[in-house]
Specification:
alpha/beta; Nucleotidyltransferase, domain 5; five-stranded mixed beta sheet
Length: about 325
């Protein structure tokens, strides 16, 4: 007799810095601390629920530890965008917001919307993500400091110059750490080498994709474009046909990919010709660049998915 997979039971999980509120049945709400001990207690509760599937919001990083532990333990998890959950609450006519209400809301959201399952992230990719986030902070501080130098007086200028020099040294040190981290991991090194076969892909884009897009090579290119936020969506109604616009997605990846696309139009003859053809039809430059970004994602997705896929030189 064939074994049947148990029906999915959605478990709403509201995440905050110090605690986790959850509901197993949509009525009663319990909580545990947002610590390793609390995660273990939550996991013990989930073991008694057939087909348990956690639904939580992305909470500025406070959800990462519990999501990682649940995925490692084999529990299915959906990490959803807070804006979508809030829109769902408004559609229900629900205006109140507390941790207990949100836990129940997330359970209902999972049951109705059946969001995409989270993909387990390799520990090495998590470390890479932390390094990239620190690099981005340093880069933002460096830009802000450099901008202030232009208006600084004689008293403040020496301090800003020292700060600028320090940030540049730290940025170079982090870049070195990122390079060493990728080189020291066989999987990351192999994928990074594969990604950089496409002209226009530099070390920052390769590292960003490895850190923030674990789905790369595992889903269709159209899904990947929507995931990153470079897929244009229609806004037609009746006889009105408005311009398509991209929206949503993973902004961190999209920003790096945009700069890579600008570079690719100059150094990659195939992508450069593709961009030029689109511009010749009268399309705005930004529309053409987004098209180049989608084209790059398609190629990069195939490079990871198919080891036999070869680029034309």
């Amino acid at each position: 007799m064939e074994s049947t997979k148990p029906e999915v039971t959605y478990v709403g999980l509201d995440v905050s810095k110090d605690r986790l509120d959850y509901t197993l049945d949509g009525q009663r709400v319990a909580h545990v601390p947002n610590t390793s001990t609390g995660h273990g207690r939550l996991l013990k509760q989930l073991r008694g629920v057939p087909g348990a599937r956690l639904v939580c919001e992305a909470s500025g990083g406070y959800e990462r530890a519990v999501v990682g532990q649940m995925l490692t333990a084999g529990v299915e998890v959906c990490v959803v965008q807070p804006g979508r959950v809030r829109a769902f609450a408004h559609a229900e006519g629900l205006l109140a917001k507390t941790d207990r209400i949100d836990a129940r809301l997330l359970r209902r959201y999972g049951e109705k919307m059946q969001p995409r399952l989270a993909v387990p992230t390799d520990p090495a990719a998590i470390v890479l993500r932390e390094l990239l986030e620190h690099r981005r902070q340093l880069s933002d501080h460096l830009v802000a400091t450099s901008n202030r130098l232009g208006l600084a007086g004689a008293t403040l200028r020496p301090r800003l110059e020292r700060q600028q020099a320090f940030l540049r040294e730290e940025l170079a040190a982090v870049d070195q750490l990122i390079e060493e981290h990728i080189a020291g991991n066989d999987d990351l090194r192999g994928k990074a080498t594969r990604l950089r076969e496409l002209q226009g892909v530099g070390p920052v884009l390769a590292a960003t994709l490895l850190a923030y897009v674990p789905e790369l090579g595992q889903i269709e290119s159209a899904q990947l474009s929507a995931l990153i936020g470079v897929a244009p969506f229609a806004r037609d109604s009746g006889q009105s046909q408005r311009a398509r616009h991209v929206r949503g997605g993973r902004g961190v990846v999209r920003h790096v990919l945009y700069m890579a696309a600008v570079s690719a139009t100059r150094c990659n003859p195939i992508l450069g010709a593709f961009y030029a053809r689109l511009r010749a039809t009268g399309k705005p430059a930004v529309v053409c660049l987004v098209a180049v970004m989608r084209k790059m994602l398609d190629v990069l997705n195939r490079l990871i998915a198919d080891p036999h896929f070869v680029l034309v030189r």
